[in-house]
Write a structure and sequence with these properties.
- The structure holds two protein chains of two kinds.
- Chain A is mainly beta.
- Chain A has two domains: 38 residues, FAH (SH3 type barrels); 209 residues, Fumarylacetoacetase-like, C-terminal domain (Fumarylacetoacetate hydrolase, domain 2, Alpha-Beta Complex).
- Helix content of chain A is 7%, strand content 37%.
- In chain A, a hairpin with a 3-residue loop joins strand 18 and strand 19.
- In chain B, the strands form three sheets. In chain B, strands 1, 2, 3, 4, 5, 8, 9, 10 and 13 form a nine-stranded mixed sheet that branches.
- By secondary structure, chain B is mainly beta.
- The chains are: A mainly beta, B mainly beta.
- At the A-B interface, strand 7 of A face strand 4 of B.
Chain lengths: 265, 261
């Protein structure tokens, strides 16, 4: 089953997919265009992986890490399907990252890899945008690069675990204005889903609703205001997002940190 | 006496009460308030700020100009203490089985009162509800190049409390003494007047790129030379006009989270 959280007619609802439409918890059947899509899970603790695809690590001139490179994201950064994402006008390089997101289903600690899938509720798609202009070499990738308001679209659906036969063999694609720009497969993850759950739960408790963004394959491209960006994962869905500039947010950007756009993550 | 908001453990509502935050009887809280285990008085996201004390930055010396850091930080370097880390006053800090020493990161916590996005320095205090004390516990680590999740995000690694002192009760939050005692012995002393970004400045620079929500806590930073504590040690953090936060370090396998020490 595919589940969503949406706003419709003045209320927030849980909904399930039904023949291309949304069946709300209160019985109403509405089309996808009539609703405001919210993140399918209300973000609480969200982990993200850096350099978790061998090809991407190579693209950034890094050796594959020996231990997962994990960072955390705050609730401020998440928006739903079809949302606007703010790109400050003065930056040189902001790029998408299409990622398989794992949603944890049960509280747990010290999970062994053979049991790891028991703790997975389902899967969704995240677009983990980064603005490299703001990279600094402290707790890198720092929050100013990776935890900006509106810079992590997630959704549209939470797809139940049972519906995805092999999450480690899914095609990943990104399109800018309908042009294919990124193509990869979850097969190429360095630390796979069971490894990530085993690793994180070895030193901290994972809780229901926690989310793990598993990293992105190679094929990053810059985005600019006006672009429509679609991130797609086989069997899970298609997450659409619009890039908008400062004027929409009534902002004047302060770009005081600049670095070259190579050799970063 | 000051008005504070606090939350008794096991009771779902927040209570307003009057306390004397200048009380400084070291470790006496364990006797005086037996049974008074408090939940963290806040429920939002907790954001930490790295290297915001002048002494903390200068203690890195020339290293900030060398690999992997290459240059000093420009914007605030932030991190997150996730929900599993948060515990309250007088709850045990679990010490992982394979680790002997923990670093006690004493920080003033700014409690946000309303949604704050791109706030100016002059308006920053309008978005503050009050102040609390946070012990940002870490497994000691030298490198600050990569996010310290394994060192900072362990269960129970973020005592918060005991209460939130309302903003109007704190005269000058940029001039508060901070003291850390281990087993009653003074181990660290500093003041928020040593912040690189004072409170209003920090709120402005952080909300430029990320919204702080009502109930979120923004840590102003940890002073240099954070004291080390071991299993069995009692840790007390005092902040002028705010109060004192006490916890004991307990071996992880002996801890019942949420219970008494």
């Amino acid at each position: 089953m595919k589940r969503a959280r949406i706003a419709y007619s003045g209320g927030v609802h849980d909904a399930v997919e039904e023949n291309g439409l949304l069946r709300l918890n209160d019985g109403r059947l509405v089309s996808e265009d009539e609703v405001i899509w919210l993140p399918p899970v209300q973000p609480r603790t969200v982990f993200a992986l850096g350099l978790n695809y061998a090809d991407h690590a190579k693209e950034l001139a890094f050796n594959a890490p020996e231990e997962p490179l994990v960072f955390l994201k705050g609730p401020n950064t998440f928006v739903g399907h079809k949302a606007e994402t703010h790109r400050p006008d003065g930056v040189d390089y902001m790029h998408y990252e299409c990622e398989l997101a794992i949603v944890i289903g049960r509280k747990t600690r010290n999970v062994k890899r053979d049991d790891a899938y028991h703790y997975v509720e389902g899967y969704t798609i995240a677009n983990d945008y980064a603005i490299r202009d703001y990279l600094e070499n402290y707790y890198r990738p720092n929050l100013r690069v990776k935890n900006r308001d509106t810079c992590t679209p997630i959704g549209p659906w939470l797809t139940d675990r049972e519906d995805i036969k092999d999450p480690m063999n899914l095609q990943i694609r990104t399109y800018i204005n309908d042009q294919l720009t990124q193509e990869g497969t979850t097969k190429d993850m360095i630390f796979d889903i069971p490894a990530l759950i085993e690793y994180l739960s070895s030193f901290m408790t994972l809780d229901k609703g926690d989310i793990i963004l598993t990293g992105t394959p190679e094929g990053l491209k810059g985005v600019k205001a006006g672009d429509k960006v679609v991130t797609e994962i086989e069997g899970i869905g298609r997450l659409e997002n619009m890039i908008v500039g400062d004027s929409k947010f009534n902002r004047k950007s302060k770009v005081d940190v600049k670095e070259s756009t190579v050799n970063h993550n | 006496m000051s008005n504070v908001q606090m939350k008794r453990h096991g009771i779902s509502y927040t209570k307003e009460t009057a306390i004397d935050p200048s009380y400084t009887g070291t470790s006496a809280i364990f006797d005086q308030t037996k049974g008074l285990v408090l939940d963290a008085p806040t429920s939002g996201t907790i954001y930490g700020t790295l290297l915001n004390y002048k002494g903390a930055l200068s203690s890195l010396g020339e290293a900030i100009h060398e690999a992997p850091y290459k240059k000093p930080p420009k914007a605030p370097i932030m991190y997150i203490k996730p929900a599993n880390t948060v515990i309250g006053h007088c709850m045990p800090i679990p010490c992982p089985i394979d680790i002997d020493e923990l670093e006690m990161g004493a920080s003033l916590g700014i409690v946000i009162g309303k949604q704050a996005t791109n706030v100016s320095i002059n308006e920053a205090l309008n978005y503050v509800e009050g102040f609390t004390i946070v012990n940002d516990v870490s497994v000691p680590h030298e490198s600050i190049y990569r996010p310290a999740i394994k060192q900072k995000a362990r269960d129970g690694f973020c005592p918060v409390g005991p209460w939130v002192v309302q903003k109007c009760e704190v005269k000058n939050p940029d001039h508060l003494g901070i003291r850390v005692y281990i087993n009653g012995e003074l181990k660290q002393e500093n003041t928020t007047s040593n912040l690189i970004r004072p409170i209003q400045h920090l709120i402005a620079d952080v909300t430029e790129f990320m919204t702080l929500a009502k109930g979120d806590v923004l840590l102003v930073g940890i002073p240099e030379n954070a004291p080390i504590a071991k299993k069995g040690d009692y840790v007390r953090i005092e902040i002028d006009q705010v109060g004192f936060l006490e916890n004991q370090i307990v071996a992880e396998d002996e801890v019942k989270l949420g219970g008494k020490v």
